[in-house]
Amino acid sequence: MCSGNLSSAIRRxxxxxxxxxxxxxxxxxxxxxxxxRRLKSLELTGGDPFLIDIYYDLLKxxxxxxxxxxxxxxxxxxxxxxxxxxxxxxxQRLSFxxxxxxxxxxxxxxxxxxxxxxxxxxxISLFSEYTKSHNTSLGFLVCPLRQNWKELPSFVTFANKYNxxxxxxxxxxxxxxxxxxxxxxxxxxxxxxxxxxxxxENNFYQKINVRSxxxxxxxxxxWHQKALLREAHKNETVKYIENEIKKSKALLRDMFxxxxxxxxxxxxxxxxxxxEYPEMVYMALAQKTQQELLFGYKHFSEEELLKKFILYHQExxxxxxxxxxxxxxxxxxxxxx
Length: 337
Description:
By secondary structure, this protein is of the alpha/beta class. It is 55% helix and 8% strand. Helix 2 packs across helix 3 (53-65) and helix 8 (184-195) packs antiparallel against helix 9. It is globular.
């Protein structure tokens, strides 16, 4: 799923972190022009590219200097303003990948806070008209989640309706929303449910979308096998977690030697609303400096600290399973551990 490193809205509203510092020079578009002229394709991502002003400068420069450049825009289709309207009237080669994780209004709003499915569908229709008239492409990107797994087959039919491609983007974290971290029994049920669907394969898009769907089914089946391993190792893994928590607590006590501070910390961690091992938060805190911890203790409210602790727990919980190689997350291991 998207994080605050990619989305300013998520960083501000969900993670409650200050904005990232942007170091692009004022004449970035001018500096980029020599490269732009030699590109074969350009992909714009975000957050949502339609909310990033400098992208409009790049698109304008591309129109003037490289009008036949293939440009792919990945968007959640919730933004349609005067700039987007003007863009769709131009004769550029724009293709669109649309992130959409539910076709149910209620579920969509739960997954994409402040998002509107009706608005997304309206804009998808406009993008579809554009791509048909300009002989470019439309694609859909779906994140399989605990909230939407029963809908996953319906996206094949949805994409086929638009003659669009379909890709399922695997979610590894937050672990409590991902499928891979579910118990083996539930993953077995999900895999059987997904495998029970069949789809037409009469044209190019139908064939590649079925291939994408079948890859998802195979992945869920592999997660089921890894969940069986995870549960078989339960006693061993519990001992490992408890030992790491014990060492982290000792480190924090030595770092501060302040009974009142540690008691406050303990009370907050016990309130972290997670299903397993809330004390994993100690493992995350033990990786921080004394200065960082004191700053957070003095400047953040209890509610803000709890939100941060939830994020810390997600990171440690996920990295623990990466370390054991019991989930399909190998390509992310170096970034997490």
